[in-house]
Amino acid sequence: MRSVYLDRKNKLWLGTWGGLNVYDPEKDKYTSYLYDRKNPSSLSFNTVTSIYEDYLGNIWVGTYSGGLNRLKPEKNGFIRYNNDALNPGGLSSDMVYCIIEDPENNLWIGTQEGLNLFDRSKQKFKSYSRKDIRDIRIGNDNTLILATFSGICIFDTKTKSFKNYHSPQLSSFPVSQVLLDKKSGHIWFSSLGGGMGYLDPRNSEFIIFTEKEGLPTNFVSSLIDTDDGSIWVSTFKGISKFNKATSTFENVGRVHKFPSYQFYPNSSTFLPDNRIAFGGSKGLVIFNPDSLLKKRMEPEIILTSLKIDNKEVTTGEVSSLLEKSIAKTDQLFLQPDQKDFSVDFAALDFSNPGGNQYAYILENYMDEWVRIGNNRTISFTNLNHGNYVLKIKTLGALANEKTLAIEIAPPFHATWWFKTLIIILVLSLLYLYNKYTFISVQQKNALILQRLKMKNKQDFNQMRLRFFTYISHEIRTPLTLISDPLQQLVRYKKDHKQDHLFQLIDTSVARLLRLVESNSRYQQTRRGHVKPSSF
């Protein structure tokens, strides 16, 4: 089912790879339209990519490579509009992806090679740009929102100008559908390979959700917005419900046994009874969004295996880390060299196998939950020693958690006793160093003091010698001055009565001179000037 459209009479138009079909619920009747090369009023090509009803009741049908067709009310024949190199008023391309009418009843057609405006009075087209346009929606203030091959454009119908928005994550993928959220102003989009998300045109910021956040696949075909704040999403791998408030996905499991799990762009609609229809590779899937995913308790999560250094840990062995099954283990003790490990888990949900999405967090190591889609293995590499808490949960309104406490023992150099030993050793070395440094300083100071005392003694002796030398010199001079005159007095005396007095004086002077001379020789001997001799 390549395209789906519900007209004002509640007729359901179905575009397929093999023609156009319309279902009339009042008559419970199907009518088919096929390409007939002999009939120029037949459908121009059997692969129908888009269907739209204008304000006049005309049904416009876009085809993959046959251009555009118009079916008038109550008529069975089509009027064809094609690309013609010789006709400047023709379509820009025969690859027609989308059709829409603006509030002023202007008809716009998106093709592989540009945006086209249809002039009803002249039955001609005016082309704008050469963009590959996959979807068109009515925006605010006379604008059109365009889904292009690598981004989103806003086209001003008055000024005929484009404003382009691009994201590196969408550069290689076509945007399949756009959707305006009038409350927030966000433009939601789906892409074939880049996931889904929204654009905030006020700051040009893209927020994108992929398999990492819970999508079943990054190939997203269609979006349908509902009043409960959810968006129903069709993909190449099934249907999902996105909660805009929590930014979480709830995937529809295969328990519902849909005829198809691969769905196509521009192939979705709301039915009159509020059911949703998605067109897929094997027909039309119709469901009630209120009952498809009934509230249920989230499935219990159990751990199924533990691997250390890529080797599975088993119970029952003497050296095993597990005393009991990992499924019944609440606390795990690991050795310092066992910091590379992985945990496998499963959700006990047999009604939705493969449909659950998971997230995990390792407390004391991570700050935020990590979404891992439907992957059921969590690995850690080169964790530091310490205490951690691993939490695993399913994504949903009633999330269920599995908790596993993990303790990684420290290596010997990080243990408390090793650190205490190092502190004691360092303190002992500091004590010994200070002790022997103090003793060495004492000995050094004693030696310096001894040297100072010896130097002071030598200085004192030198000073004493200089003093005695000076005194001896000072005494010798006056004695000499006394001795010479005395000798002359003795020589020339006339009265011999006083000879004994002169003799006494001379003897005393001579004795004093000998004492002074002896002292001088002693001082010279102390200085090392002469050899000692008897006096």
Q: Which features would summarize this protein structure in a list?
A:
single chain, 535 residues, alpha+beta, Methylamine Dehydrogenase, Chain H, Immunoglobulin-like, 4 domains, five-stranded mixed sheet, four-stranded antiparallel sheet, 3 helices, 36 strands, 37% strand, elongated
Explained architecture:
The chain has 535 residues and is an alpha+beta fold. It folds into 4 domains: 1-115, 7 Propeller (Methylamine Dehydrogenase, Chain H), CATH 2.130.10.10; 131-293, YVTN repeat-like/Quinoprotein amine dehydrogenase (Methylamine Dehydrogenase, Chain H); 301-414, Immunoglobulins (Immunoglobulin-like), CATH 2.60.40.10; 419-527. The protein is built from 3 helices and 36 strands. The strands form 9 sheets. A 5-stranded mixed β-sheet has the order 30-36-35-32-33, with no helix packed on it. Helix 2 (416-491) packs antiparallel against helix 3 (499-527). The longest helix is centred in the last third of the chain and has 76 residues, at 416-491. Residues 530-535 have low confidence and may be disordered.
